[in-house]
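ingest -> validate -> predict -> emit
validate: passed (alphabet ok, no gaps, 181 aa)
predict: started
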Amino acid sequence: MAAPSALLVMGVSGSGNHPWMEGGTTHAGKGQSFEHLCLLHRSTVGSLLASEDRIPWLSNLHDILLRDVATGQHVVLACSALKKVYRDILIRGKDGAPQKCAEPGKEGKVAEVKLLVVHLSGSFEIISERLLQRKGHFMPPELLQSQFDTLEPPSAPENFIQISLDKNLSEIIATILQVLK
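emit:
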């Protein structure tokens, strides 16, 4: 696997994305530092966003990933990214179309982010219990089933790993670091 320049920590609400968004920097060894993008799209409580509502937001995240990666940063993005098309937008942008380039002969290359998708997965029962214990979060537990219904788990040829919620945060980090070696 080519070394990723960014990590996407994804999963349904309650799967464990939140600790990745609490700010600060996690040192990932070998001089790599993954900065947290604390970008959270807050939907109106009790309602779902349509896919078309998410596209501009995901496209903006793609642009931010490209910008930060171009400056040499290694980035961690915590985002539900439940559908493959959402992850594709994070990697290739809205259209995945060739980007214009000022240099002759450089046209036609899609501006892609080398992304490793880290899918935090667990059963409905475990995640539901986690949501019921959270206070003041924007995602109501009543919408969890809709997230499971929407979830398209990563699969080949996506560059991904799946990590069970049976692990604690330090075990999850250790697993990710092992994959990155």
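The longest strand covers residues 115-121.
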